[in-house]
């Protein structure tokens, strides 16, 4: 049972446990109306929610990484969710996004041709149980594999809809409010994320400053291949001391020798971002 698994978690997850328990209780109540269907759904959900995934190192090209880079700083989980789960979550978030227009520029020029929203009231915004269980599963994966060493609370999920012709330029996510990780569930389109060392831990805003930064860093970088339905995690120094950006369509990811180079045609992309709150 879901409540049995969660009650052994430390007290920092008490609120999260109650949230999942309520969903499970609703599913049990529904079984009195449609027992066979509800029972099958509950069993599938319980198994998938608590099954931890291992990262796929072949999706990280660290051949030109700085000497102090370690694999735990940036990982990618391939096929973290199913097609059904991805379609469900896209449908749910597009209910909010469809009322917004694409913005041609952010105040700091980091992102161009995009929509965004935050899931402040996730319970009411995300209507599908499939989507809700997926978000729970992402949080469980992150708490167990990347945040088990600390007490923390979650910030609301941040959803970014990037147009086919949109740009996400080099930046370090604000360190004023968010904590040790930045993680993203990639939906609809493949892309390549490039990490570049940033010794100051905060790339200066503005196009001129960013271009100077990119010219100064030399050849040290790490590329992450983000196929649809993958989950990436930037942790610790990978979150604070590397800028990240999406490379333009047509960029090449150099995979292992067996697969060879992958030319990535980037299209309309939606990402759901997860962050822990700053201590």
What is shown here, in short?
It contains eight helices and twelve strands.
Q: What's the SSE blueprint?
A:
Layout: H1 2-6, H2 14-30, H3 35-49, E1 60-61, E2 74-77, H4 83-97, E3 111-118, H5 122-125, H6 129-145, E4 158-168, E5 178-187, E6 191-197, H7 207-216, E7 222-226, E8 231-235, H8 237-240, E9 242-246, E10 251-254, E11 261-264, E12 269-277
Determine the mean pLDDT.
80
Shape: globular
CATH topology: Jelly Rolls
Tally of helical runs: 8
- Major sheet: arrangement of strands: 2-8-5-12-4-3
* CATH architecture title: Sandwich
Helix content: 25-40%
**What is the CATH superfamily?**
Alpha-ketoglutarate-dependent dioxygenase AlkB-like
Number of structural units classed as domains: 1
Structure overview:
This protein has 279 residues and is of the alpha+beta class. It has a single domain (54-127, 153-277), classed as Sandwich (Jelly Rolls). It has eight helices and twelve strands. A hairpin with a 6-residue loop joins strand 10 and strand 11 (261-264). Helix 2 (14-30) packs antiparallel against helix 3 (35-49) and helix 4 crosses helix 6. The chain is globular, with a radius of gyration of 19 Å. The two termini are 32 Å apart. Mean pLDDT is 80; it is low at 1-48 and 201-208. This is AlkB, alkylation repair homolog. It comes from Seminavis robusta.
